[in-house]
Design brief:
By secondary structure, the chain is of the alpha/beta class. The chain has helices at residues 5-10, 21-29, 42-47, 49-55, 67-74, 81-91, 111-115, 127-138, 156-170; strands at residues 36-40, 62-65, 99-103, 123-125, 150-152, 177-179.
């Protein structure tokens, strides 16, 4: 499974490896409300993958680059003035939308902060929910024997920071991160 939207945007799914992008599309298509948007990192938005896939369903979608949020979360910043300023700037054009796809694995870490900048009825969609359902359907009997491997393109220092912040931000202990 490729959980990273940026990596999934440039990877073609195979029988052995699936990316998260189709699960994000599915979660948006299942959601009601006419005003749909997504926030994602620079390379995810610029890849055009979401615009292309939604166009196949006749659905226009508003996209906002939210790279500053990813950077702050990677540093373990989950609140504060700089985060609030970035959230305000990124989300202001989306404040009246019905649903927003969180097209970066980092963004659920600040979901409550994001909600403060949107109308109360706006639904935040995490594609991981769709991905988990799929995994449970495809591999129901293998879940105890599946090995979880974390890989990253970061430097050795970034890999260690990834491990540290995974525990701090998501309360997930990662014993090893393999460089790609």
């Amino acid at each position: 499974m490729i959980a990273c939207n940026s990596a999934s945007a440039v990877y073609s799914d195979t029988d052995e490896v699936r990316g998260i992008v189709p699960f994000g599309v599915s979660s948006v298509l299942k959601n009601n409300g006419p005003q749909k948007a997504l926030i994602a990192g620079n390379s995810t938005v610029r890849s055009g993958i979401f615009r292309k896939l939604f166009a196949q369903h006749g659905l226009p979608i508003r996209q906002r680059i939210a790279q500053p949020l990813s950077i702050q979360i990677e540093k373990g910043v989950l609140s504060g003035e700089k985060l609030e300023n970035d959230l305000q700037r990124i989300l202001k054009p989306l404040k009246n939308y019905d649903s927003i796809l969180l097209a970066c694995t980092h963004y659920p870490a600040i979901e409550n902060e994001i909600k403060k900048h949107l109308k109360p009825s706006c639904q935040l969609l995490d594609p991981v929910d769709e991905m988990v359902e799929w995994v449970q359907q495809i591999w129901p009997s293998k879940q105890d024997s599946v090995e979880t491997v974390f890989m990253s393109t970061g430097s050795p220092e970034q890999l260690e920071l990834f491990r540290y912040n995974s525990k701090k931000v998501f309360d997930v202990y990662i014993s090893k991160v393999y460089p790609v």
